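FAQ: What does a ligand-bound record look like?

Like this one, built around nicotinamide-adenine-dinucleotide:
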Amino acid sequence: MTITVVGAGYVGLVTAAVFSDLGNKVFCLDFDAKRIENLKRGKLPFFEPQLDDYLSKNFSQKRLFFTTSYSESVPKSQIILVCVGTPPKENGEANLTYLFNAVEETAKHLSGYTLIAIKSTIPIGFEDEIESAAKKFAKTRFEFASCPEFLREGTAIEDTLHPDRIVIGTSSKKAQKVLLELHAPLGGERIICDTRSAQLIKYASNALLATKISFANAIANICEKTGADVEKVLSGVGADKRLGRSFLYPGVGYGGSCLPKDVLAFAAVGDHFNYNFDLLKTVHRINESQIDFFLNKIKSAFKNKSLVSKKIGILGLSFKPNTDDIREAPAIKIIKRLIQEGAEVTAFDPKANENAKQEIPEVIIAKDEYETAKQKDCLLLLTEWPQFIQMDYEKVKTIMASPILFDGRNALHKEKLESMGFKYIGVGR
Ligand SMILES: NC(=O)c1ccc[n+]([C@@H]2O[C@H](COP(=O)([O-])OP(=O)(O)OC[C@H]3O[C@@H](n4cnc5c(N)ncnc54)[C@H](O)[C@@H]3O)[C@@H](O)[C@H]2O)c1
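The answer part, i.e. the structure of the complex:
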């Protein structure tokens, strides 16, 4: 098949890489000319494991093409996969400007029967408007489907090759057939439904993941007040097969480009349909308050709770390991607050240093994790990259000004560190 993937971001590039690798001819289109030029030269806009290899292999074997031109790609394609961003507006609703623009530009260049499948996450209720916008420009017949994406940054290629499910939302039998054929080489359950249900599956999935994290944080807060240990409590809870332990992660809260925005956008969908989704509003509030909660712990470790001139080291900047994405990363929010409070902040991340420096010019970037710890009044673990967990903490203790460790991910071995002489402060432990 010939496919145009619109949007060369995390979802678009991974989608283009995998579908070209499966033998399709794929045009990966972005309106950002610099991004496309860089991609043609083998320069990726972000770090994602394995993506470089997949892109360069399929580009050099001429199955994958990068372009800014709708007229070059769309008329030759049977399927258009729309993967543009749907970032949040100030009020939490999704901004669909990019999506409308992508669909309208696509519609102008359609030739022969084409399927337009939306992989971007869009609020329920907009599918008719998007389809009508396309109809205004289309000169030939096209069909519409919702095909939400579930990949996770850091494991995006593996997730795309081995999905848990493929959701196909469309009322057209022909469109169903085309999408089933496209996904035939991939595993996972097939869920065929209407477009609204498909979009709801995406929002409900992210909402439940976020709810689990905020629930774990609420339990952690109660553990701190009662003297219980949240890690033991959640292990006990998770041992129940009906519940499981996954995503019950207490810590500094969720971040990234999806959970925070999708929780708010889903709550806004509720409001739009006259349902007050209080649960999700609380999930969001708990997540936001985790940052204050963690900052208070840090301030409490110092005289008069003052961070003025305190030298603080930060391990990890990305919103999770194996990515350089700092969108809504708890580490970035915490650093901004520490700097506001007068602290001198030094940080290190295996992949996200440059992105963080652009976002917060005041942060000092260390050359590695040990330099981050050197002569610091305390050290904060904010992203659980394996190399931080495997550090030589005996050495860390000798180079710090004072051995205080704040574990924002409950990823370190509390008892072991305490026996080495560290003051260890986790979340809910
Ligand atoms: N990042 C994830 O982990 C993830 C996972 C699942 C779903 N999603 C959803 O997928 C969508 C894309 O997310 P992303 O993280 O890949 O976004 P991104 O910001 O990384 O990339 C979006 C790309 O689209 C391009 N673009 C925007 N408008 C365009 C247009 N009209 N024509 C051509 N190109 C255009 C931008 O230049 C950018 O390169 C969002 O709706 C997101 O919620 C993301």
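Follow-up question: can I read anything off the structure? Yes, for example: The mean pLDDT is 97.
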